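Escalated from tier 1: adenosine-5'-diphosphate holo job.
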Amino acid sequence: SEALGTPRIAILSEVVRNQIAAGEVIERPSSVVRELLDNAIDAGASEITIDLEEGGMRLVRITDNGIGMGPEDLELAFQAHATSKLRTPDDLDHIASLGFRGEALASMASVARCKIRSRPRGAATGAEIIEEGGKRGRVTPTGMPEGTVIEVRDLFFNTPARRRFLKRDRTELARCMAIIQRVALAHPADENGQGGVGFVVNHGGKRTFDVESNMDLLGRIRRIFGDELASNLEPVEKTGGKSRVWGYVAPPRFARRDGQRQIWFLNGRPLNDKVLTRVLKDAYRGVLVEGPKPVAFLHLSLDPETVDVNVHPAKSEVRLRDERALFGFLVNALKEAVLRTDMATPGDTML
Ligand code: ADP
Ligand code: MG
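Tier 2 regenerated the structure:
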């Protein structure tokens, strides 16, 4: 046994720290997709291409036309707690970006083979850096168009225990697509066709999905979920003080057991919050029996000062100030729209 007082505590190496952080941030290819899409959106991209191989396990590559990164930024991009989105503790109270922890790229680089190529808008040339399993490369110049390309290959190649939790290509691809479609729904064009983000997805070199940047929310719902649902939706639009809710609710007969089509965005960020499930339940009370979950696609704009997003690493849950007032406002806004939906049941239309 060891001598009394022999030191046993040591600070973990950066590689190990990042691998531990990766366990929280990066669970599977779809988490890579989510983080890279957030970064592209934060960079102001209006066109994003996602290339996947083997459900994203072999490759996730995201190309964007955002502001890009210069060589000094590339030098830091893979380091933990390196971010351009947060400077002071006060900034934590009014975060407008999707990311802010500076953990995603560092986590990916510790468990995959990563490469960033980037050329800032207006710069004469681009640069690239490679980091594989936490081993850093040097920044070297490269020719490329403006924007950023981030490649994540062979996820968990150096952590076989985690790789074993991944499923078949098809299952992982479906999860990636669910994330991509949600992000596409989060960034529709406005009524003038402006301000939207376009997406193209290729899997194994074949185009599997796209939405044009000028498509509005309804067009995107139609592209993703089909005409039957899209043409039966009822619009929602209500402002109260600094809060606004807009989007669509479906007639009760479209309700599903799985709740997969209750999609909420808060200030452009996908949101899973139990409160919102309850809002929908209340709004459909009386027109829908307990059980199946109503279908709705809703954007919520709230004063960022009243929202705390620093609650969960996956960032799909938030803490809302004055939740009760918000609840009432939302239930009223949705109820009006729900009552306008076509209440016919499939049986009625047979008559
Ligand atoms: P976070 O998004 O929390 O800041 P990340 O690890 O995801 O942390 O990214 C680190 C930094 O790299 C970002 O703050 C941003 O400055 C830069 N970055 C990442 N992806 C892009 C991109 N696609 N375009 C421009 N800059 C990017
Ligand atoms: Mg990020």
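The domain at 232-343 is CATH 3.30.230.10 (Ribosomal Protein S5; domain 2).
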